[in-house]
Amino acid sequence: MSQLTFKFPFSKKFYEQDFYVSSNNFSAFKLIDSWPNWPGKWLNIFGESGSGKTHLSKILEKKIRRIKLINAKDITENIVEELNNIDCLIIDNFENNINENLFYSIFNQSKQLDNYILINSKKSIKNINFNLKDLSSRISSLIFIGIELPTDDLLKVIITKTLSDKQINVSPKLADFIINNVERSYEKMFKFLKDVDELSLSTGKSININLIKKVINQ
């Protein structure tokens, strides 16, 4: 199945359970939010570390009573039997680290039971050259949705909201400096804001350009 996209309604703002929605992640959020009205039962959400894939999985978890979230590296043959007792399986951090025969068995069992599978990965799994042809055929049936790197506007919202929750006000100029000097990823930005806050608390100094530069240069 080809990659699915939704048109982002730029006049609206979304904010759910600390998940920030913008044009770069709206398609993934929209599909998760629309469960169970998916165009297919199997979904692959892909994007860089810290892009919000696991957070979206947590939102889906709250929608489905019988659901299991498991890290790909922790999957064993027992999971095939467990599918009988759940309606949705979420496989997190997939890096082609599941035995192909087992992976194929998971899809086969899921197809028989007519339940859902969500696979989170850094790269689209449709680009993986699996040795097992039957597995490749199953993979082609997935819905693929990518989460892109955050926009400047979204990063500004994250910076402002994260720090304002700690009663810290940041000027637009300071926010722009952070955006231009911190790697453009959710993971790096959240870590940076955590480090800035911790340094501010430990030194008793307010968050200013000098303190920010010190964290950047660490």
How would you characterize the overall build of this protein?
With 218 residues, this protein is an alpha/beta fold. 42% of the residues lie in helices and 15% in strands. The chain is built from nine helices and seven strands; from the N terminus they run E-E-H-E-H-E-H-E-H-E-H-E-H-H-H-H. The protein has helices at 26-33, 53-61, 78-82, 100-113, 133-139, 152-164, 172-181, 186-203, 209-216, and strands at 14-16, 19-21, 42-46, 67-71, 88-94, 116-121, 143-146. The strands form two sheets. Strands 4-5-6-3-7 form a five-stranded parallel β-sheet, with helices on one face. A two-stranded antiparallel sheet has the order 1-2. Helix 6 (152-164) crosses helix 7. The chain is elongated, with a radius of gyration of 20 Å. Residues 4-16 have low confidence and may be disordered.
Radius of gyration: 20 Å
Q: Estimate the global geometry from the Cα principal axes.
A: elongated
Give, in spatial order, the strands making up the sheet with the most strands: 4-5-6-3-7
Subunit arrangement of the protein: single chain
Largest sheet: 5 strands, parallel
Query: Which parts are unreliable, with pLDDT below 50 for 5 consecutive residues or more?
Result: 4-16
Number of strands: 7
Q: In percent, how helical is the residue content? A: 40-55%
- The N- and C-terminal alpha carbons lie at a distance of 44 Å
Strand content: 15-25%
> What's the total helix number?
9
Q: What is the typical, i.e. mean, pLDDT?
A: 88
